Batch of 2 targets.
Target 1
Amino acid sequence: MTMETTASLNTTLEPVDRRAPLVLGNETFASVTNTVCAPAEIPLKRTPLVWYVCLAISLAMLSLLGVSVGWLFWEGVGIWGNNSPVYWAWDITNFVFWVGIGHAGTLISAVLFLFRQKWRTSINRFAEAMTIFAVMCALIFPGIHVGRVWTAYWLMPIPNQMSAWPNFRSPLLWDVFAVSTYATVSALFWYTGLLPDLATLRDRAKSTVAKVAYGIFSLGWRGSNRHWQNYEKAYQILAGLSTPLVLSVHTIVSFDFATSQLPGWHTTIFPPYFVAGAIFSGFAMVINLMIIARWIFKLENLVTIRHFENMAKIILLTGSLVGYAYGMEFFIAWYSGNPYETFAFQNRAFGPYAWAYWTMISCNVISPQLFWFKKIRTNLWALFIISVFVNIGMWFERFVIIVTSLHRDFLPSSWAYFRPTFWDVATFVGSWGLFFTMFCLFVRFLPMVAISEVKSVMPEADPHYGHGKH
Amino acid sequence: MTMKNGQQYWRSLESLADSPEFKARLKEEFPLGASELEVKGGVDRRNFLGLIGASMALAGVTTTGCIRKPREKILPYAVRPEDLVEGRAQQYASALRTGSSVLGILVTTHENRPTKIEGNPMHPFSLGGTNTWAQATILDLYDPDRSQTPSQRGAAATWQSVEAQLTDIASGLKGTQGTGAAILVDGAPSSVARGLVAELQRGAPALKIYVDDAGQRSAQASALAAAGLPGAEVSLELDKADVVLALDADFLGLEGDVVRNSKLFMSRRRIVDANSTMNRLYVVEPNFTHTGFVADNRLLLRAGEVGEFLLAIANELGAKGVQVPERGTRTVSGKPYQAWASGVAADLAANRGKAVVVVGDKQPAWVHGLALSLNEALGATGTTVRYVPDSEALVPAGGLAELAQALNAGSVQTLVMLGGNPVYTAPADIAFGDALQKARTSVHLSYHADETSRLATLHVPRAHALESWGDLRSTDGTYAITQPAIAPLFESLSEIEVLARLAGRQPARGYELTKNHWQTKLARPDFERLWARWLHDGVVSEVEKPNITTVAFNFAGLRPLFEAAVVSPEPTPESLEIRFPLSAQVFDGRYANNAWLQELPDSVSKLTWDNAALLAPKTAKALSVESGQMLKIEFDGRALEIPAWITPGIAENVVVVPQGWGRSFEGRVCKGTGFNANAIRTSAAVSFGSGARVTKVAGTYELATTQDHGSMENRPIVRETTFADFRQQPDFVNKYELMAPEKQKTFLWKRPYEFKEGHQWGMAIDLNVCTGCNACAVACTAENNVSVVGKERVLKGREMHWLRIDRYFNGSVDDPQVVSQPMICQHCENAPCEQVCPVGATVHSPEGMNDMAYNRCIGTRYCANNCPYKVRRFNYFAFAKENDEQNPLYAMQKNPNVTVRFRGVIEKCSYCVHRVNEAKIEAKKISGGVVADGRIVTACMQVCPTDAIVFGDINNPDSRVAQWKAQPRNYVVLGELATQPRTSYLAKLRNPNPELV
């Protein structure tokens, strides 16, 4: 990993025409295409060993998921540590964690696109891929955590001879709609954006298999003016559709908790707090993955330190929002005068799960504050480590919300302590296996940077390029 | 086949069962059951009957897991027995001995398969109620580890050889006049048995009878004998008592006629309004019992000091001018409880004729003697306590200790043990196992091939109480005929059938023996008619009950007892007082292989599947011991390693080690559960002793508890005040409300039902009369096919009880009070669980019940998370299927009216909706669909020995439940959540003596 401190790169506050370029190193249109297409164009026989190693590790983890889920289906939910009263534990923690991770992608692609934040172009493809893979991981958990998996499809409003419909009052059902909509729109958005680049790969492909495969998936893209016009419209519309979803998905996920009556869940602050938390963890994950990919695939000119710095600022902002939410929860717990609520929060900070709570606070509230220092937010090592902390913290946030609220609720007679089993851990590790496997395949076979979009922010794309100021 | 059964309708199968072709075909048809139940040493008819029953049961039961349609054959009735309608349950009256009491019972059978036991309302000692043991007995019937074949010195034997050996013994008895022969009986035998024993003794006068006193009633018996009333029984008339002083006496829990005691005692605690009256209960005890739960004033005192306390009371009563007939020469002074004793004595003296002193079975004879004397002084004799002589009482030659002596001396060479398990239950110093092996011939009739059976020369399988004929006598002389509800599942003999063989009677079948005995005994011309009525009613109404109000005691006879009294030294952390109570779950170990009882949380410690050395927090601190730490208890030269468990409410420097666990009998349920207190118990310290040394040893042990947290955290869950406060402020429950009650009824949106029309079901639970005895929890398990999960899963917090008893301590940790609260689904009108279920598997009925549609449930568990009462249970595994696999006979117990839940679904209390619907169907036919109040009785309500639970239509202002709910003490738990529960509680009251602080 190369160390860079290119302070002069960040010229966000300068007038637009004086800002530093988003792509560095005298890249040309051709060199950008070459750089991005390179990993996908390495012949199979010459695939770097490091990729095989990564894929092998990922596949091993993925097979752990297979074994865990198989054993779960065979034996029942009892293989996990869930008990009474902690009926949800790692299963739903993992679900919310992965959905949260999946937020950065759409935010970067859609929201920043609509706000014409051009720096997004080098990282949006990557972030969107991450979103889709994270949502895939997330979707596993609600599916497998039910007691009778073979009936999980009853969650869908499928017309049937018994006229048995789902209960539309249940937040869990809203979840099904919210997350599946999000997954669908995110996938469409990602695929639409991929079309021009898939066509580029098709055009450059040498092997027949690649030609046919890219040919099919590029849907006959020829780069004609009409294609571009339709494409831009579609992209804009999808961006418009995705933007409210960024807010709605985690809002609805938070309703699972907010609309119930459990102290520690039943709070109105959850929707904004969950959305902020999701963006927070999503950006941290993008930073982690991007730093590695940038280093391996030599994308330093396309993904500059300025990108990282911008993302660090968003982490700082959302981290502070999350910290504020934590504080506000405590304030409301006291201010409401509700003894159950007050107890739930005292118990969170000082009860048997205090260790989890303080892990969360250290990772989520304290560590991102280091990003106030420019030296830290432009140091890749620091960025990487703090982002890992943020993700640990955000996992613990969901654990704290779910498990510590459940383990001690209204009647002290049913209080208990939750301990994870081997299978809890295995299922979670396995979901990382799925995530990394998908990522390995993505970086190897698809353009991980949006070639056409990056070109649009290069000086060469400016019609006045080379003609000085006007 | 040497055994022939009395019931004719099995005969047709019997002849078939004998043919090898039929056996082969059966085996082919029921491969699973046949191989599992096959008995080594000859397959017999009853196994097949059992199998047929089991298969029928399985066919009626929804099978679990992925196999959705079990391939099972159903055998229809070729000729339907008279009065039997398939699908309709039948009830048979019988009686059952539980602990040291006799309960009249009604056995519910489905297609001749007993599934449930209820109390017989016509029997004066159950009055419709039962207890945990009676409820769990139904599972014992289907214990797959019950002995299925006789054995001789551990090797399988044939019934021919059993018959031959019994005949040998019979002829030996005749030849020797009974010299060197003895019979050991387990508790008080039936009238039939006593008749047979008398007959035996006439032929063989030297034959000795020993009594195995498992219930530890001998101290009281010796006191009564010393006072000139040998063999008399003590009957407490607690409905007549205003003041009760219980000294280490658990008369509401384990000792004596607990069901009747509970009914009568609680009849004086039904507080309606400020004008009601309430009795007062003083309890002096070293550790919490159910009686201690209820105590108005409780004095924490070690067992060895209880007698001294009673002496102090006697002193005080004497000082107050009450003439105490005999109290020995010792006096007590300078004790810390002197003021307490003075206050109690004043209250007792002020309530002469309406007061009673009850001494527990665990106390020595002199304390019982003193209580006899004090009760006489207080005018209790004949009013609040009655002494009922028993003319047929056996005159035993002694107990286990004397029998062991005789065996060791060689004066008993032939021993017949009718039930009991003395090798396990005898105190260690008796070394009964060694003594037993000295006998030339020893026969053990026993339900399990247990510790004693292994050492006896011949083990004979005993028929279950629900499979045998006989009779049982209650304390006040009421007799009940015990009639079988099913033919023995496995070939076996009953107590009287063995005695009849020894007496050389023919035919030696239970039915003839019982009927002939009673025919002879009463000699009534209309016997056949009476017999039919007794069997129908469950009570022998024609026997005159001794009605003795005045007793001529020979109080001088008590003097030697007082002189022999031993004052136990004050314990220290180095030399603790040790106490061996009988277990509220497994009793003396006889219920150890009963999965329901093993999983039943102890009312105080909330432990399941194990016993432990219970210590008060103070004692544990002095010994620097924590719960789960392995301890070595050295007592009287013997040692026991057992984990510690810290429980408030135990006297300081006392260690409590419940009996009945740690059996070496390897039943599939009891294997590896608990630690054997009998290994250190001695005959000098049957119930308690001093000088126990407790040291820590390496290692910890995981104990499975169902409730870790004992404090209510100042939440208004159980509301309680004193009776005096209640009279001042009858609506005191409202001051606990976190939200005004009228505000609790506001809703954001329109509700699907207004709950104004038709029947609206509801329940009320009176905490003031609840003793926390757990009977409802077992009854619910039995009625609703609730699965047992085992210790590992209890440790993980996955027990399935629909009804749990929450126990909360309050007050100081060194001398707390305790309250118990039955907690079940509250059937909220505004149910949080219904809102969140994504598939609508839990929905509301128009009659206000929160219903579960098990086959719609997909198991998201969201409902359980949102249930503020945490009464929903999740099938984390296929528990029901596992239960049936591990215990193949358990399926026969299942209630066919209740779905057996499969893996992955939530389950919970249904308000016994099947009973509600049964009543509604009935009502449709006879009363235009209106169900009369009292027609629906839920399982928990039915069993409750204190009638603390009432269920009915809250829309009918005349119903009992509506009237209860209209009482000022009525409140709902967590009402501030606006859940509008249909189950409400009546607040607890205590009536402490204001002079005792």
Note: The two ends of chain A are 41 Å apart (CA to CA).
Target 2
Amino acid sequence: MQRQAYIISHCSISNNTVYKNGEQLFADAAENIQQFLLKVYRHLEIDYPKFYKMDNLSKLGFLASEYLLKHVPVVHKQEEISIVLTNAHASLDTDVKYFHTTETGASPALFVYTLPNIVIGEICIRNKFKGENAFFVFEKFNAAFTAQYVTDLFSSSNTKLCLCGWVDILDETYTAVLFLVSAHATDNTLLFNEENMMRIFKSVQA
Amino acid sequence: MSSKIYIAGIGAITAIGNNVAQCLHALENEKAGMHKATYLKTVHATEIPVAEVKAGNEELGLLAGMNSKISRTALLSMIAAKEALDDAAIGNIQSLRAGFISANTVGGIDKTENYFRNIFKEQHAGDLHDIVNHECGRITELVADKLNLHAYTTTISTACSSSANSIMLAARLIKAGMLDLAVAGGVDALTKFTLNGFNTLLILDNDWCKPFDEHRNGLNLGEGAGYVVLVSEKLANHSAREIYCELKGYANANDAYHQTASSPDGKGSYLAMQQALQKAGLQPADIDYINLHGTGTHNNDLAEGTAIQRLFNAPYPKMSSTKSFTGHTLGASGGVEAVFAALAIRHKLIYPNLRLQTPIPEFPFAAEKKLLKNQVVDHVLSNSFGFGGNCSSLIFSKL
């Protein structure tokens, strides 16, 4: 029996703009992604020095997650909160940067980010989440798979809250669309399904 | 259902021996296994010592009874797993629910990394047979097929705590009544992939490693395999051979601190040791010997020592890192060190921590410098802590 879950909020970061639940929260004509991500971090008004050490994929996922989690009172146990992320380019953005450093002296600081699921680890460490986690690589956003996989988590594991979606970056091209999904409906929640995820995802791309 | 889990057989192949007897002989005679890389072809051979199994793949293929052209990882796994199973001498294993829970972190990369070197030069170069066993799980399946262990087969890959976790999972499967017997442990072969990766992290010692020494300067990579045969209480009662020991406690915890480093206060290692003791129903003072994770990196030994200092009180248990003999065998280390724990209990030994000169001054304890014989070794705590903060502790107890 599959349990119905609900999208309680969503956040996207792309094209130098941050949206939460469809509302524009921040935009800046920064020259490059590095600068833009730093401005988003400042806009969040958080103090988390580890941010500066992260690679761009982790920064992007971390920032989107902060918009969704910052003011959310945690009513669930650490073990009941899961993260399922997907993208197209795995950690290639950092892999390439790391590969260039091997010519002169391989960088340990970059090397530890040459896996896509490190972004999940960063979000878990920040929020002390200890539930299920998985990272999948697809050519493009696969709402059907994500909906099916996350719905199954709610049905077959102790997951009560799940952060899921898409975090992709290569060079200056980036898109993050994250969904905070709950087992329980509240005001203004959307059904968590393929159609609603796809509709939100497409509105970001438009 | 079985409330207790016993070790009925052991098998190991490492830089200090191709079987358990040779490894024990080297441990008793303080013979380390590091040297210049000869079987692994690497540009770092002259600068970075490694602890290789002293045999080429042709010889390992003969020992394993397998095609020597398949991955070295599978050959090492087969040799040690078969030794463990033969040692347990269970008899008609086909009438039992016998599983194989094997860990590794490199899979068949030893073959893949050379295959790719060739196709970068020429698109159709290379033999596709060299990549079919790339996945970690393939190594386990090859050996499970050969040993006819089919009731349950799985592969665990959690970095350096991998094979401690496979032993833990096997114990839980037997306790839950799902298996009667499991061969559990792990394997890893040396590869360019791991050597270059660890080299990037700047945690390889250019000399032979000095775990728990003030002047430690990193780890030496090793290779090998170590397996134990875990059996239920019922099977242990019918065993023709003397049982080595009981697996009394186990626990896994996570630091949630950094991709590769341990938290400075050793939170994950503290939790793993504490919860393993709790599971075993033992107090810290009951532990006679700690087989340390003790890689020889500045970070690990400080974190592990800090956790030990928090959990234990004087007089501290005796302790040593047998990685000073075998190097760090990564996914095999928990299995290899489980075998060493069983031997320590049976032969009443505390192994030396080779090359220890200056114990770390921050700690009120020091690792053992010399082999100690005729010791009371009733309870051994074995630590395996991995990248990703994945920390596991096992407790082996005399019957």
Note: Chain B has two domains: 5-237, 249-397.
